[in-house]
Specification:
single chain; alpha/beta; 7-stranded mixed β-sheet; 5-stranded mixed β-sheet; 16 strands
């Protein structure tokens, strides 16, 4: 993704890795045959021609304002145990890619994760001398209070999959124990000096307190959608959904499409393949995603 400029704000994508998954792994009940019906407009950028796997990207957004440096979502992380997933024991140059964009971990002021799933908080920590320590030692980690409490209770009571406990222990608790976590409401704003605005944007459904970001600088704006949408195929089929609350997730996605379609608002999703950023447009009566030029 080329740098996105919104007035005084610059946004860059910090790539972790590209991958492809079976459609049913991402969207329960969806088959390769379902994907084939949309292959003609999705094309090989978004679907593997032979397998009809859905192509995805793991990356973070680096947001630089006049006052602060923000990292939105921290991907999967290196050295994390996640058997059966694309992010098991990764060794990626994520930190090096961040440095190429001109930022060292020590220079990040805020870290914000859209939700507390393993592929969105992994780089909160890194392995150092056998211990998991905060990757961004000078940052405030802004965490939705409701999201944190939901997953803490689910893990403590055993009402979620046992596999969620280890990532929680490795990637979430260390930033809390080091005093770097700040628990905020789901409408929290952390840049609000005219003409700039950056605030949390509740997009519930994928998780209980899933939030994106809304950004505006002057007359230009963007929505960082997190996992409210995973893949462009969902513009045609909002019912292809991966959500804790299925009905809420579908409605949030429909509202997001209605909010963005044929407007100047940029959509910056969490997992769309490169070049990632673009706009929702109508083509012959259908919602489609128009990527920015490579």
């Amino acid at each position: 993704m080329k740098s996105q400029i919104f007035g005084d704000i610059r946004v860059d994508s910090i790539t972790e890795f590209e991958f492809a998954v079976d459609p049913g792994w991402l969207f329960p009940g969806v088959t390769p045959e379902d994907v084939a019906k949309h292959e003609h407009w999705l094309g090989p950028r978004l679907v593997e021609p032979e397998t009809r796997k859905l192509k995805l990207l793991s990356h973070a957004y680096l947001i630089r304002t006049r006052h602060q440096t923000i990292l939105f979502d921290t991907c999967c992380g290196n050295d994390k145990e996640a058997p059966g997933t694309p992010w098991h024991r990764l060794r990626t140059p994520f930190i090096e890619n961040l440095a190429r964009a001109g930022v060292l971990p020590e220079q990040v002021d805020y870290v914000m994760c859209s939700h507390l799933h393993v592929d969105h908080f992994g780089w909160n920590t890194r392995l150092q001398n056998g211990k998991w320590v905060p990757t961004f030692p000078n940052a405030r980690y802004l965490i939705s209070k409701g999201e944190f409490e939901f997953w803490r209770n689910a893990i403590e009571t055993g009402s979620t999959q046992p596999s969620r406990k280890q990532p929680w222990t490795e990637s979430v608790l260390p930033v809390v124990e080091h005093g770097l976590a700040t628990f905020v409401e789901d409408t929290h704003g952390f840049e609000n000096e005219m003409p700039d605005e950056i605030r949390y944007m509740p997009l519930y459904g994928h998780t209980k307190h899933h939030c994106g970001l809304y950004l505006r600088s002057g007359s230009q704006d963007a929505i960082f959608s997190g996992d409210a949408i995973h893949h462009p195929i969902q513009l045609a089929r909002p019912d292809f959904i991966h959500a804790l609350d299925r009905e809420a997730g579908i409605q949030v996605l429909r509202d997001l499409i209605a909010r963005c379609i044929d407007t100047s608002t940029k959509l910056l999703p969490a997992h769309f393949p490169s070049p990632t950023a673009g706009r929702v447009v109508s083509e012959s009566g259908h919602a489609r995603f128009r990527f920015d030029a490579d």
